[in-house]
Amino acid sequence: QQQVKQSPQSLIVQKGGIPIINCAYENTAFDYFPWYQQFPGKGPALLIAIRPDVSEKKEGRFTISFNKSAKQFSLHIMDSQPGDSATYFCAASTRTDKLIFGTGTRLQVFP
Amino acid sequence: EADIYQTPRYLVIGTGKKITLECSQTMGHDKMYWYQQDPGMELHLIHYSYGVNSTEKGDLSSESTVSRIRTEHFPLTLESARPSHTSQYLCASSYIAGGPIFGPGTRLTVT
């Protein structure tokens, strides 16, 4: 049983578009929800993270929206650029450790 | 510069060989982790450690073993490599209150 469900599997947008990646979780004990960005041949890099006491967090062009009652959270990338083309993973955990990852979303941003 | 290092980056080895994947971090993090990731797929936790002489198995069963004799060092060993062990192995570390920071990974191919 997958504890963190991520969609879509892949996403294609034009430069300047706003891709949105969604995740849903089941375990109400989760209290840490990060997003990671991974380029081919590299390890995942922590992009932005949120805790359930806030509904939105913004860092630069990246925004997390969090809906505790629906047990869902999403990543929005404003003014997307070709350099944002990567695979994005959501994750969840209790106490920030032992992350459980979603299945990943491959994003392609075309010029 | 604080960082997390993995060696080798790529390894091609024959069936039955013993291998050790090295992971070191210079950030003084107490927590360290090993994740396994097939290309383009989600990450699965196989081992974690909360400190020296502390190791636990993760959610994904693995024939590998780990040790934590020094805070900065968390090697992973396969006593007898098999083709089913072919995958990417990612090491990560974190502070108590922070999300894991990943190394670049070791891509293992067992022939």
Describe this structure in words.
The complex is a heterodimer of chains A (111) and B (111). Chain A has 111 residues and is mainly β. Helices cover 0% and strands 57% of the residues of chain A. Chain A has no helices and eleven strands. The mean pLDDT of chain A is 94. By secondary structure, chain B is mainly β. Helix content of chain B is 0%, strand content 50%. Chain B is built from no helices and eleven strands. The model of chain B has no long low-confidence stretch (mean pLDDT 93). The A-B interface holds A 32, 34, 36, 41-46, 49, 87, 89, 96-104, 106 and B 31, 33, 40-45, 48, 58-59, 90, 92, 94, 96-105.
Q: What's the multimeric state? A: heterodimer
Number of strands of chain A: 11
Number of helices of chain B: 0
Low-confidence stretches of chain B: none
Which overall shape of chain B is indicated by the principal axes computed on the Cα atoms? globular
What is the first-to-last residue Cα distance of chain A? Answer: 38 Å
Q: What is the number of beta strands of chain B?
A: 11
Mean pLDDT of chain B: 93
Q: Low-confidence spans of chain A: pLDDT under 50, at least 5 residues?
A: none
Shape of chain A: globular
Based on helices, strands and strand pairing, what is the structural class of chain A?
Answer: mainly beta
Query: Which strand-content bin applies to the residues of chain B?
Result: over 45%
Radius of gyration of chain B: 13 Å
Q: Helical residue percent of chain A? A: under 10%
Intertermini distance of chain B: 36 Å
For the biggest sheet of chain A, the summary is: 6 strands, mixed
Characteristics of this structure?
heterodimer; A: 111 residues; mainly beta; six-stranded mixed beta sheet; five-stranded antiparallel beta sheet; 11 strands; 57% strand; globular; B: 111 residues; seven-stranded mixed beta sheet; four-stranded antiparallel beta sheet
